[in-house]
Sequence to fold (314 residues):
Amino acid sequence: MKQSRAFFSKSVWVFLTLLTGCILSGFSSGLSVLAEEASEIVVTDMADREIELNGPAERIVVLQPSNAEILFAIESGDIIVGRGEYVDYPFEEVKDIPQVSTGESINIEEIIALNPDVVIMTTMSQTEDQINQIEAAGIKVVATDASNIEEVYESIDLIGAVVGHKEQAEQLIADMEETFADYSQQADEAGEEGQSIYFEISPLEYGIWTGGQSTFMNEIAEMLNLENIFADVEGWGEVSEEQVLERNPDYIITSTMPIDGFKPVEEILGRDGWDTVSAVKNEHVFLANSDEFTRPSPRLTDAIKTLYDIVYGD
Fold:
């Protein structure tokens, strides 16, 4: 009898153990499904396309330099498996990442061969047909489109969501806002309003182009209480020598690349008839890093630091 009772007790224990295991297994499976469902990411990109991801992107091909800079700034540079040919910053981190052709010479097969789960590009960079080809290979395409600083923040927020780094993205945006506010306040305290500035994008021999309204240059100038003499030009525009002379800027910032011995600042200072311009007379002509001033990236904070130091620095 004792043996039967012991056998019964042991059987019950085994049964309960198995039952409990089944319940826990089922519960665990349910949790797994819930976790999987919870990890799904749905974003609306800046081309108003809704994109569903099974989870944070783990392999990314990024075609534009600005988006690559955002990925590195939110600690996601290590998941870039391919980069556009102009992605060059931060140089040491990107130099060994495989490069893909972009623009008119884009090679879709080259991108697909890198086996990314997401390709990040700008709305202007590729055609609808090229996007369709990439998505037909099971690869998600996320588009950004930033032409002002608020839209840069939107790009950072979007990319942060795609890679599952929302907190890092929010922190980066907060840091940028703080930097802009800090330099703007310092400019207010300097109390030197009314100074004018001219941004030269291309040298005289190729026709003078400048950055007007709706450019990052103009936004940054306004933050520092500087008057862009071509604020009436929409976006990037060609202007004449006569217009520059007539508007007589206090500062000239050139972003022309010094190549093959060409010295942009010296070239401007030596132009015939420009010696009457205030910026030239006072030697307030400076070379700036074009990438910092023109890319919709976190390095716009470097641009405002540079411009502040030029105008208000010791």
Remarks:
- The two ends are 100 Å apart (CA to CA).
